[in-house]
Amino acid sequence: MMKIAMSAAASGLLRALNAHASVPRDRILLTHLRSVDWQSLTFVGERHEISLRIAGPNADAIVGRLTKGLEDADFAVPGHIVADIALVRAPNRTADGSVELTIEALTIAE
User: Fold this and answer.
1) Quick check: pTM over 0.70?
2) Structural domain spans, the chain
3) Domain 8-109 adopts which CATH fold?
């Protein structure tokens, strides 16, 4: 298994997305992650672009749970607030039957 270096905010956000989908963490595969520093006059945080792949049986059901109410969900990310989150690339079924999607989020340090 290859390990990807990521910030505490990014790893917490991935755990929160898995919890939101209510599936074991090995069902949602991280295929791309990009986090960049972000700041305003009063806040400091990160913008995240996360591409995921859901393989195996019931992939559509998992995608449905993951994306349902995504923008309104309260995510628990220690030390951070998820200020904005959205599905930016609609779920796409691949030739092998898995489903790919991309989510963008803004986390702000508490």
Assistant:
1) yes
2) 8-109
3) STM4215-like (3.30.2000)
